[in-house]
Write a structure and sequence with these properties.
mainly alpha; Non-ribosomal Peptide Synthetase Peptidyl Carrier Protein, Chain A; 6% strand
């Protein structure tokens, strides 16, 4: 069983998937930072100096509904989804173009020669 597990980990798909998760998590962190530090401050300023991360409805004591943070998380999700969509769309387009560029298999010389002989006999 240990050998099977080692074989699974070494396979390209598992390694590619792990790399994808790591880059995905790092990318999500960058997008969240972009939202919090670049996108939301101007929006808050336009809305009269509102800091979205502090918007909440206090229910009593320490209990509160933090709808400002939820709004920032929703914007983060939408932007991250849009970027991933555009990335996948670009990759699919490149793969489609690559498939279209594939050349037709070259006809063997003996088949070409036989075709020339056939065409020559038809013309005579």
């Amino acid at each position: 069983m240990l050998q099977e597990f080692k074989s699974f980990l070494i396979k390209g798909n598992a390694v590619d998937m792990a790399v994808g998760f790591i880059f995905g998590a790092a990318f999500a962190g960058v997008v969240k930072s972009f939202i919090v530090n670049v996108i939301m401050p101007p929006i808050g300023l336009l809305m009269g100096g509102v800091d979205f991360s502090n918007l909440k409805i206090v229910l009593g004591g320490d209990a509160a509904i933090k709808y400002g943070q939820a709004t920032m998380d929703l914007i983060n999700f939408v932007i991250l989804g849009a970027v991933v969509f555009l990335l996948v769309k670009a990759i699919n387009k490149m793969q489609k173009e690559k498939e279209e560029v594939k050349e037709e298999p070259k006809t063997p010389e003996d088949v070409e020669l036989l075709r020339e002989i056939r065409d020559s006999l038809k013309n005579n």
